[in-house]
Amino acid sequence: MEQKPQIQWFPGHMAKTRRKITENLSLVDAVAEVVDARIPVSSRNPELSALIAAKPRLVVLNKADMADAAATRRWCAHFRAAGYAVMTADCKTGAGVQKCVPLLHELLADKLAAKREKGMKNPTVRLMVVGIPNVGKSSFINKLTGGKAKVEDRPGVTRSKQWVPVDPTLELLDTPGILWPKFDDPEVGKRLAFTGAVKDDVLDIEELACYLMDYLAAHYADTLTERYKIEVEPGDTGCELLEKAGRKRGFLMRGAQVDTERMARILLDEFRAGKLGRFTLETAPTEEVTP
Ligand code: G4P
After folding, report:
1. CA distance 61 to 71
2. Degrees (nearest 5) of the Cα angle 204, 61, 80?
3. Four-CA torsion 150, 155, 159, 165, nearest 10 degrees
4. Of ligand 1's atoms, which has the minimum distance to the CA of residue 135?
5. Ligand 1 neighbourhood includes 153 CB (under 6 angstroms)
6. What is the per-residue pLDDT for 13?
7. How far apart are CA 132 and CA 75, in angstroms?
8. What angle, 0 to 180 degrees and rounded to 10, lies between the N-to-C axes of helices 221-228 and 238-248?
9. Given this model, what pLDDT does residue 7 score?
């Protein structure tokens, strides 16, 4: 599939983002990396590790309300094994966000103890939020600060930094660091498109829906049967299934031809709205899972 993502990251843009993040890093004690729990690999930028180096990191598996709960547990274990503090969140409702402060205290325990030893009574922790577009960075900041932050997250917008108090022990930089997604791998591009991180008007909707059907047929065939009342036969391609679903729904054009474009939009809309259920499109390596 040819990817023409909505967000074009040019070298200049990347350099500017890198510079900004590096600059802000010197001011914070920890970084919260927000990822989409449905695509914890594709919604990360692999360059972040090089950028933030040894800075303590909290991984926020956001949109957990839309992800497969068992898969999210495995991802939590995976990130924990990599040495990060981890939390899940639903930043639409705010569920889980309250775990952030205690987790940061745990993550930064040594640093806080050292500050107290130096005579600081109530040392404050400073945090910045980073992530690729649409993972929920602004929603996270808003929920965490109870709406006190005025989030401006358009790339390239320069504004003076503002620290927003979350509680007496935590201050948040109100501007998230926006990383660029990695589009070089077409599979990554597809997953970003399935979840709606890439806008549809720049993609071939039918092609994308065929890929999604393929994926769902391979992993969640029962869901397709339940939702679209179609039989998934061995060897059915995604496009054939899209046609079957459209026919079943009665989306017919002249000559009894199925309006597959209409069905494609419906499949993607329903998938993104969670009407087909909760899905995680990427599997965590299992070896790190602790019982
Ligand atoms: P960003 O700053 O990283 O770019 O992301 P932002 O907070 O703007 O969130 C992107 C979209 O994801 C928003 O939806 C937001 O409501 C939604 N969202 C954020 N966190 C969660 C979550 O944990 N669960 C769910 N289900 N959705 C989440 P939108 O369609 O752009 O706007 P709207 O629906 O809020 O109007």
Report:
1. 11
2. 130
3. 40
4. 3
5. yes
6. 78
7. 18
8. 20
9. 54
How many Å apart are CA 92 and CA 140, to the nearest integer?
9
Ranges of residues in the chain whose predicted pLDDT is under 50: 1, 3-6, 288-289, 291
- Strand (E) or helix (H) holding 146: none
Task: Output the pTM of the full model.
Answer: 0.90
Helix axes of 238-248 and 260-272: crossing angle, nearest 10 degrees? 100
- Residue of 45, 75, 90, 88 lying closest to 274 (CA atoms): 90
| Shortest-distance atom of ligand 1 to CA 142 | 7
- Confidence (pLDDT) at 175: 87
The residues with which 31 forms a beta bridge, in sequence order, are 57, 128
Pocket test for ligand 1, best of 44, 139, 151 (most atoms within 8 A of CB): 139
199 φψ region: left (φ > 0), alpha (ψ -120 to 50), beta (else): beta
Structure tokens at 104: 């940061």
The DSSP secondary-structure symbol of 4 reads -
Q: What token pair was written down for 45?
A: 């930028």
**CA 268 to CA 246: how far, in whole Å?**
13
How far apart CA 162 and CA 149 sit, in angstroms, is: 8
* pLDDT tens-digit series, residues 158-217: 556 689 999 888 999 988 998 888 878 888 989 999 999 887 766 789 999 999 999 999
Give the number of other CB atoms < 10 A from CB of residue 182: 18
Q: Which pLDDT does position 291 carry in this prediction?
A: 47
Cβ neighbour number for residue 287 with a 10 Å cutoff: 8
Q: Are 60 and 34 in contact (CB under 8 A)?
A: yes
